[in-house]
Amino acid sequence: MLEAESLAAGAKIHALMRELFPICRSISGDGVRRTFELVSRHVPLELTEVPTGTEVLDWAVPREWNIREAWIADPSGRRIVDFQDSNLHVLNYSAPIRARLPLDELREHLFVHQTHEDWIPYRTSYYTENWGFCLSRRQLDALPDGEYEVCIDSSLEDGSLTYAEAIVPGELEDEVLVTTYSCHPSLANDNVSGIAFLAILGEQLAQRRLRYTYRLLLSPGSIGPIMWLARNEDRVGLVHGGLVASCLGDPGPMTYKRSRRGDAEIDRAVALVLRDEEGARVRDFVPLGGDERQFCSPGFDLPVGALSRTPADEFPGYHSSGDDLELVRPEHLADSFRVYLEVIDVLERNGRWLNTNPKGEPQLGKRGLYRSVGGGSSEEAALLWVLNLSDGEHDLLAIAQRSGISFGEIAAAASKLREHGLLAATSAA
Ligand code: ZN
To answer: What is the pLDDT of residues 267-307, one digit of tens each?
Structure first.
């Protein structure tokens, strides 16, 4: 069932990605708002606008950026680079400019990809004011000498930065946080995939009965989590566990980066699910990478890890026009979706129980539990493991870990034993 649900989700995520991909996003501006509008067709969003100049922790909210057009015309007047063709052509967050200048001077404002001559690189200039264009090395090398005309019709003005949250309520006030960044323009895996993924995840979670409350956060990289943390400092203790979702559609294996704590329930849950995924990798926390840097800064130290396929800077095409909708396939999105649902299932069903008959094994046969269910020996093994380790110390996750049996089988055995009064709740459950 998870398989079919995930395949449908993969197709939906890819369809939404095709809508989101052409939009020019940045850390702020109307491209971000348009993006949230499309996401909100799948899951209702609460938007927060934080005005330019607002101090957030050690940072201040920068000016809002918007862009209408940008192009370079060669000496014959032909437009050789045009923002209409690809929004990667303009240095993201570029200041406005309208000028005529010789090629030598123009070159100082042109950026090319380091290694691949056909890719347009993705470059930003958020915290130092600059203007510029990005183009392929092949295109740059073909430019004739002469006078060029450049136009960047953008604005950098007081406005606001926008972030969006979707809250899917569960029985508990405690929250599972799933976050992604919303600041990248036409880049598919990093990270239109994360935005579309959260939209469809929210849509699906809203149809379930949940124990935890799920908070989905979409915000510009770094400054977004910083704003959110600054504004929610008094309630971050409710975050039971979280995942930074990114790069979810490439063909690489799943990769998990543990939270700074390393052994939080979310870390153990993801590690257990990935135990059974071919080629999957689990890595320790390092203070480099994506938004987990903010959630895992020492003053917060939240149990938030990062779950992706190939991490951002490790796949070919990263931060360039090579990261397109061909790289990201519905079947890989579906596979990532299934893994996320499995992790959520572990969090939802995990708990600690007490064996009510710990002296000797309880007689399963007379309760119809032994060899009663098609003779599956792993099912019997799951019953025995749960009975043996339900001492109030081990949770179901630890039992699945230690027994080598899947979490689903361990959880099913636990419900069966509960039905027969062989397990009781602990206060810590
Ligand atoms: Zn990136």
So the answer is: 999 999 999 999 999 999 999 999 999 999 999 999 999 99
Q: Residue 271 C-alpha to ligand 1 middle, in angstroms?
A: 25
Boundaries of domain holding 87: 67-157
Ligand 1 centre distance from Cα of residue 123 (Å): 10
- Say if pTM beats, i.e. exceeds, 0.90: yes
Same domain, 44 and 82: no
DSSP 205-216: HTTS--SSEEEE
Whether the ω angle into residue 350 lies within 30 degrees of 0, i.e. cis, is no
Q: Say if residue 47 is in the same domain as residue 183.
A: yes
Ligand 1 center to 181 CA (angstroms): 9
Which is nearest to 340 in space by CA: 375, 309, 374, 298?
A: 309
Residue 360 sits in the same domain as residue 343: no
Indicate the burial class of 78 (C-beta count within 10 angstroms; 0-12, 13-18, 19 or more). exposed
Ligand 1 centroid–CA 230 distance in Å is 23
Count of domains in the chain? 3
Distance 265 CA to ligand 1 centre (A): 27
Low-confidence ranges of the chain (pLDDT < 70): 1, 371-376, 427-429
Q: 179 and 287 share a domain?
A: yes
Residue 329 and residue 220 in one domain: yes
Segment 80-120, tens digit of pLDDT: 999 999 999 999 999 999 999 999 999 999 999 999 999 99
